[in-house]
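Below is how a single chain appears once it has passed through the pipeline. First comes the sequence as given, then the structure the pipeline wrote out for it. We keep one example in the README because the format questions we get most often are answered faster by looking than by reading.
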Amino acid sequence: MAGAEFRYYIYALNEYHWKPHEWANLSRHEKNLIIAAIDLRVAEEKKQKKKAERDAKRH
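Resulting structure:
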């Protein structure tokens, strides 16, 4: 497992409690789809965090 792919697996393990064989049995296409979904979720979480920080400074 490549370094970047391993980080995504760790995310899936922690967030979704996936077992190693569940990740290993995914096709390359399925892994790419999940990786893209994780990237979108992380980007949205960062956006929401920045918004919350801005809102907190205003009050």
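The two ends are 46 Å apart (CA to CA).

See the next section for the split statistics.
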